[in-house]
Protein 1
Amino acid sequence: MLDLVRIALRGLLHRRKRSWLTIIGILIGITAVVALVSLGTSMQLAVKRSFEELGYDVMMILPGELGRSFGGPTSFGASFEIDTDALSQVEGVGELGLVHYASLYVRAGGNEGFLDVLGVSENTLSFLKADQVAGRRFAPGDRNAVILGSEVAGELGLEVGDTLEIEGRPFTVVGIYSAASRLDEDTILIPLSAMQEILGTNDVSLVFARAAAGYDVGEVAKRIEGFLYRTRGRRDLSVQTMEEVHEVVQRALGILGAFLGGIAGIALLVGGIGVMNTMYTAVLERTREIGVMKAVGARNSQIMTIFLLESGLMGLTGGALGTGIGALLNTAAVAAAKAALGARVLEYGTSWWLVLGALGFSFLVGSLAGLLPARAAAKLDPVEALRYE
Amino acid sequence: MRTEPIVELQRVWKIYRMGRWRRIEVEALRGVDLAVERGEFLAVMGPSGSGKSTLLHLMGCLDRPTKGRVLFEGQDVTRLRPSALARIRNRRVGFVFQSFNLFPALTALGNVELPMIFAGMPRAERIYRAQELLSRVGLGERAKHLPSELSGGEQQRVAIARALANSPDLLLADEPTGNLDTETGRGVLSLLSEANREGVTVAVVTHDPEVAEAAGRKLGLRDGRIAGNNDA
């Protein structure tokens, strides 16, 4: 077998230029597959990491039913009233974080306009995982305190200790945060009580709840759902665990990845047809050689093996190079995303199974593309092959 | 005592179908009877198109007759499977062609190794034997050369070494000196004679009177029939 490999290699090296051109066809296909599948994995890993940071023991109570939305800002539209004291009494419920969202009129220095403002209870900051870069967090009794995202602080030219007006009320900047898992850096945070006073309501738009230590999140979520139904008499609120949200997002990313992979697969198919073309030409070119091989006693199966190995090796070489380039592209994409959008947007996504799968698949594509030409070579009539000019 | 012929043709016909719809029939051999005895040196002569090459191909199990039987060492090979025929060609027969038919991508050594690779011989043994055969045909120093780096006579000697690789019983040569000048042709002829002296049965298709002279028996072929059969 090793000797047949050697003969196949000699054949490839003898028509070097054509072999390389064919290999490039496979290379492009495999590069596309590896790069795009890696990108999909990169996004999935990044999403997974953000959810892990947020904590899988966290649940969200928000208006509407699960599945209608991903629980992002789109569900911030509606607000609802909730008895937080009673909610705290539900077995297994730990820390609560309340959020009320609104677009409010903000004036600072010479700037004014509507900006996103979140009214948050004191505990909420621990759910949002904001990185405090200056000042402090909210303290009990804070009424006219504000914490700014670093971006909005920069735009408005505000630092800790400065003041701004929200809906005509003066607020003092007590802190500035940077990147957060669930928070853009252009958001303004004020105490929930201040928000409710401004809007004249006791509503919230979102409740974060943590499962108490030792409790299963899914169980607690079910209990909360039961509590909400008992107290409200209808199912207008849903409880989402991070696991559920994560699953929905992963499913969407999975579909995206499969779609991208499919497109790349077309490129690979074109590469495979290139291999087939080259191998048919090789069989034609070497008809006489095949005749001689048969004359010196090569069996049909041995001739078929030689040609299959040639096409398979072209596939494998293209696959190996393509996998390398695809992995490099993924590294570059991760670096570019970091440079353009800040940290933690993508994770490195080329996995070992993808590398091994791509190598195996490229050998398979090469061999399959070589199957018909190899059969044609094996089935040649020796006398006709020897007579071929 | 008469031994069994190494190869025997019984009323053998070979009809080729040619042309666009394979409608044109060409009768290359028309009922040939021939027995080649072990240890013979046979020359097959005749004008081109008389069926000489076809005869050689049938003797070497490279082709099957349309009608009649071919017995190789007493075995009817007419209905054998392709792999069984390949095995006979590999182990019992050596072919030498007019245009050498060496593999341009393989060195002289690699070309001689080839039949042994197909026979599944271990590498070390193969290389040793190939080197030995090349020395025997006077090319021991040129083992690493590609065919393109060898003269016509040298290439044909490599081809003979390749034909002898698996110690065949029957050596078949189709115009082996046809592409060579007289002097070089003599060298090739002496290699064939030497193989014959060592017990290999040799059958040569030739136009070359010197080759025919060296043979023990001359067979004339005309229009697919045997036209003359005389022992020298």
Note: Confidence is low (pLDDT under 50) at residues 66-76 of chain A.
Protein 2
Amino acid sequence: MSKVCIVFDRLRSEEKMLQKEAVDLGCDVSMLDAKITQINTDSKREDFDLGDVVLERCVSYFRGLHFTASLEFMDVPTINTYEVARICGNKMIMTLRLKKQNVSTPKTYFSFTSESAYENLEKVGYPLVIKPIIGSWGRGVMALKDKDTAEAVMEIRDINDGPHDRIYYLQELIQRPPRDIRVITVGDEPLAAMYRKSSDGFKTNIALGADPEICEITKEMEEIAVRASKAMGGGILGIDMMEDEKKGLVVHEVNNTVEFKGLSKVAKKNIPEAMIKYALTCIRK
Amino acid sequence: MNCPECDATLNIPDDASIGEIVSCPDCGADFEIASKDGSNVVLKQAESVGEDWGE
């Protein structure tokens, strides 16, 4: 019997759904809390209850990323891989990868000091959207619509001066309906999709109260989602797209530890089941 | 059991698992289930949302 290990740092309904589906599929399951797990350079796979394959589900990006590095060090097949997590976890790296692989993505500007970012803003013109390169749930994402707002945001960045605050990621503001599209892909195959309707302002994050609504996956969505997934290196991903009035669908983000609680309530397909089935295909024979 | 912060009654479901978060209905404090042996539950302060939290 195959054994699936779910690594977590906060046990959410998603992790419990995965656990249940694994049991229903006849697998053994272990739940491993990354916060209380100690690993060293002599650690071996058999020192832990890691089973045949691990689903890394930490809510903390850096914890999950470094835990995945440890798992790969111990030769444990892990979903997603360290490389996929590394690319998806940094918006600048992710955007560059999408563009390099010819996946349509909003035009994005990178600067490496506040002065340079401000200079670029004045040159390109307002509005642009500033996003932290690390982070999720729409935190720190702001539309810079005028000079005063830009100056205020740049000053706050300079005061905070975290290492990632020195990387300025500014993106064109897409003209689109007040919603975006989340497509969940499993092993490069689109599984389910939803519209995320903005509840207030331009952000469409479910974590901020956006309304989820089931979305039929069109041929175009499918084709773009597959290319975006392949560009990241595959695995289990959440591909976010916007409907640009001129360019059509553009991918603005790919998520590594995708949340699916809302979508699983309305999707025709069993999302956690598909994720477990995919994990079982990653077991090394 | 009672909230370690404000002493209000905390209702912890029987099927709650280690690692789950319990919120106090009175003061709003979040606690993580650190261990559970039948009705014997040990709580610890839950982590606050980090800058790198999310998907």
Note: Chain B touches chain A at residues 17-21, 32, 46-47, 50-55 (CB under 8 Å).
